[in-house]
Amino acid sequence: MAGGATTATVLGMSPMVASTIVLAATYAVVISEKINRSIVALVGASVMVVAGLLTQDEAIRGIDFNTIGLLTGMMILVSISRRSGMFQYVAIRAAQIARAHPGRVLLLLQIATAILSALLDNVTTVLLIVPVTLVIVRELNVPVYPFLFAEIMASNIGGTATLVGDPPNILIGSLAGIDFNAFLVHLAPLVLVVMTVQALMIHVLWGRSMKSTPEHEARIMALRAVDKIEDWTLLRQSLIVICGVILGFVVAHPMQLEPATIAMFGAAVLMLLDNWEHHNEKAAANIHSTFSDVEWITIFFFVGLFIVVKGVEANGLLSLAATKLTEATGGSLPKTGFAILWASAVLSAIVDNIPFVATMIPLIKNMAPAFGGQDAIQPLWWALSLGACLGGNGTLIGASANLTVAGIAERNGVSFSFVKYTLYAFPMMLVSVAISHLYIWWRYF
């Protein structure tokens, strides 16, 4: 049990059992969609503290402010940049490159999402891609759900390829001493295969039957994308700041900076430049509009969820599950690797993968002597990464990018049901993990 967690019973139950019930109840109500998920998460978090399962200090430490800061900063950047007309321009050009065919546009956006997620991170990517998607779909007059669904899947798959693409990889790289190049060499080839299979499944499910009218397609091809730029000064400022933020993400590790710091700094700079440009009442209106665009429902859902998960972590549930997993494999490296892959995938679909990965890392490191040293257990790191990152696709609450897209979709009148998403996504996630299983077996065992 983590230091500081209570050892007293709660209504006759052990802290582990009580915290597990709170977690299960929170997820059950979220899945039911009867109450807004941010309210449910905050109530669950409050129960953890009020019941004595966490102290307030532990609850605060459980919140991953790197995630919260990154989300908020990028939402602000996107909100300000959108007013320049940048995303409308990109949307029209993308649709014209695909000759305005919905199926080809769907494929193009998946590829773009996967590439950007590998270079940046998946949350930042969907924050940049989704506004573009909404513009394209409105122009084509086709359903938006398949596009947003495909981009969630592509963001988590693409983010698996590199050290910086997904938070679990950042944890593994940092705590296990694995560099950017190693992730690229070992995981990028598999990600290409998984992404290809994923794109084919999306095409069969939606892409091949999606059609627009010749009138809508012709109208898009006749548009002048440059006419959508409404503020050239803001466009230049936005591009400079966004490029600076992207560069900051690339050099963040050697500079010992967190992505949240870079995103928030970029957001503050762009807000300052925008305010400087408009020394009048419009400046105040822009600031209010910018902060209103932040997906506060998503932000507070994460705050509550982090505290709920911290409760089960502090009271020993995740540690117990990880220990039982390693005991069940009987000391076989291949069995251990496959068990880590599948358990990580399933658990990452239903609980946040960051605390699970943080719990698994020291356990895997402790296996090194039994398996012949640190070099011998490298396949276990790839199994953990693939399970945690790809498993996040399984449900709407499996990864940060999923909830970010859902929040934006709902603000734009697009229903994003937990059950509907899971019915489509969970089988696709299992396919990607099965491919990963074969890859690990072929390459390492």
Polypeptide structure, described:
The protein has 445 residues and is an all-alpha fold. It has a domain at 66-293. The chain has 21 helices and no strands. Helix 1 runs antiparallel to helix 2 (37-50), helix 4 (65-82) packs parallel to helix 7 and helix 17 runs antiparallel to helix 18 (353-371). The longest helix has 27 residues, at 418-444. The protein starts with 14 loop residues before the first helix and ends with a helix. The model has no long low-confidence stretch (mean pLDDT 87).
How are the secondary structure elements laid out?
Blueprint: H1 15-32, H2 37-50, H3 56-62, H4 65-82, H5 86-97, H6 102-119, H7 122-140, H8 145-159, H9 167-176, H10 180-205, H11 214-222, H12 232-250, H13 259-277, H14 281-293, H15 296-314, H16 317-328, H17 333-350, H18 353-371, H19 378-391, H20 400-411, H21 418-444
Q: State the secondary-structure class.
A: mainly alpha
Largest sheet: none
Counting copies of identical and different chains, the oligomeric state is single chain
Q: How much helix is in the residues? A: over 70%
Roughly how many Å is the radius of gyration? 22 Å
Q: Number of helix segments? A: 21
Low-confidence stretches: none
Shape: globular
Tell how many strands the DSSP assignment holds: 0
Q: What is the succession of H and E elements?
A: HHHHHHHHHHHHHHHHHHHHH
**Strand fraction:** under 5%
Distance between the termini: 34 Å
Return the average pLDDT rounded to an integer.
Answer: 87
